[in-house]
Design brief:
single chain, 107 residues, mainly alpha, 77% helix, 0% strand
């Protein structure tokens, strides 16, 4: 019996002509998977950023009330007279006053 090469040639031609389609499809699927993987990392990073941002905002609010740290780096002009002192200076003045009162009581 003679072997038929027509079927083999047909399969080879189909593979040859559809090869770019399969490569494009595989590349597209790889791109989708890589994009989803990157999106997962982005969501996790965004959640960590939001959590730490809320924590920092809470601490900033506490320290701005206690120590007078307003976070104003000179970009805002305040035309109203205001008195704001660093908390460490206030604590030093209070300690100095307490020491003076105690030294007067000892004398």
């Amino acid at each position: 019996m003679a072997k038929s090469t027509g079927g083999t040639i047909l399969i080879a031609l189909i593979i040859l002509f559809t090869f770019p389609f399969w490569i494009g499809l595989a590349g597209g699927l790889f791109g989708i998977l890589a994009g989803l993987f990157g999106a997962i990392f982005g969501i996790i990073g965004g959640l960590f950023g939001a959590i730490f941002g809320v924590m920092v905002a809470i601490f900033k609010g506490i320290f701005s009330v206690l120590f007078g740290w307003s976070g104003n780096w000179g970009g805002h002009w305040n035309f109203f007279p205001s008195f704001q002192m660093n908390g460490f200076t206030i604590v030093a003045i209070v300690i100095l006053i307490l020491l003076l009162i105690r030294s007067r009581k000892a004398n």
